[in-house]
Amino acid sequence: MNRESNFEMFRYFLESYFNVSANYDELEEVINEFNLENIKYRKRLLTELQTILQLQDWEFVHEFVRVNGMRKMDKDKLEWFIRFIQEHIKAK
Asked: How confident is the model at residue 4 (pLDDT cuts 50, 70, 90)?
């Protein structure tokens, strides 16, 4: 199994919600739009983000975000980004 396939919902979030047309100052608004998605998708994204934080493989995450979100972020920005999403996703 391809490692990237474990993060399909994160890829979906990057491609469909926080794509290159969105700015960082719009991130909370973008997450609020994602919160309209099915609860199953929101929970799955949270699970994937938790896995990413546990893995701490920032080179992989950097490349994943670069390819799927067309953004370059250093480790600190990636960690902030993931935690910000986690804090704003409604899982209930």
From this structure: low
